[in-house]
Amino acid sequence: MKLQAVLFDLDGVITDTAEYHYLAWKQMAEQIGIEIDRAFNEQLKGISRMESLERILVHGRKDGQYSMEQRRQLAADKNKHYVSLLAGLAPEHVYPGIVELLGQLAEHHVPAVLTSASKNAPQILESLGLADRFYAIVDPDGIPGKPAPDIFLKGAELAGADPRYCIGIEDAQAGIEAIKAARMFAVGIGKPELLGASGADIVYDSTVKLSLTSLLQAVKQDSSL
Ligand code: BG6
Ligand code: MG
């Protein structure tokens, strides 16, 4: 396979902001009398702000109790808290292996594209010192959310790449499903039992195992390609 682009999720792949999303949602949920735990949080990973709120309200059986206006306020409160947690974010918070992988891709002229559902993504990349390391950043606004394939297909399009020759990297079950729906090779970062069940072609427990060589080897070993 001639690799044409690598599409990166952000939260939980490039840095640990997935944890901040969890903490901020947990606090917001508690304020309205809903308990969420880490197992439930797996269903929020990769999911947009408003859809995550919907899922929390349904989980707490309170979805009938809030008007659209109140939901917008709850989502805004969560985001305010989340953004405050980002205050100390700096280049040393980039997960291990990511800067090296971006360097290897650049060296081999393989575009790296950001395919995150987060509206905070540009600001986070800026804080991490990675803003100029991506060929393109997909704007999630108006694009159907993961697990729909659209954000990954848009990323491939921006890079001028054929989806069949793209690799997507994700920590979320919905993200892995989206990559597979886009007919790309799916690399999971996290637990094999969760991400494998969602269709990941390979799962690493840490980004330290990511490199251009390891990715190409994984693709080569995959009999379906
Ligand atoms: C995804 C996260 O990357 O972005 C989700 O996995 C989050 O947890 C989503 O809800 C939207 O993020 P934001 O920053 O726009 O609220
Ligand atoms: Mg993620």
TrEMBL record:
Broad class of the protein's primary localization: cytoplasm
Gene3D superfamilies: HAD superfamily/HAD-like, Putative phosphatase, domain 2
GO molecular function: beta-phosphoglucomutase activity; magnesium ion binding
Record-listed E.C. numbers: 5.4.2.6
Positions that bind Mg(2+): D9, D11, E170, D171
A Pfam family reported for this protein in Swiss-Prot or TrEMBL: Hydrolase
Cofactor note: Binds 2 magnesium ions per subunit.
Intracellular or extracellular location(s): Cytoplasm
Cofactor: Mg(2+)
A cellular-component GO term for this protein: cytoplasm
Catalytic activity: beta-D-glucose 1-phosphate = beta-D-glucose 6-phosphate
Site residues (Important for catalytic activity and assists the phosphoryl transfer reaction to Asp8 by balancing charge and orienting the reacting groups), renumbered to this chain: S116, K146
Family under the similarity heading: Belongs to the HAD-like hydrolase superfamily. CbbY/CbbZ/Gph/YieH family.
Name of the molecule in the record: Beta-phosphoglucomutase
Source species: Paenibacillus lutimineralis
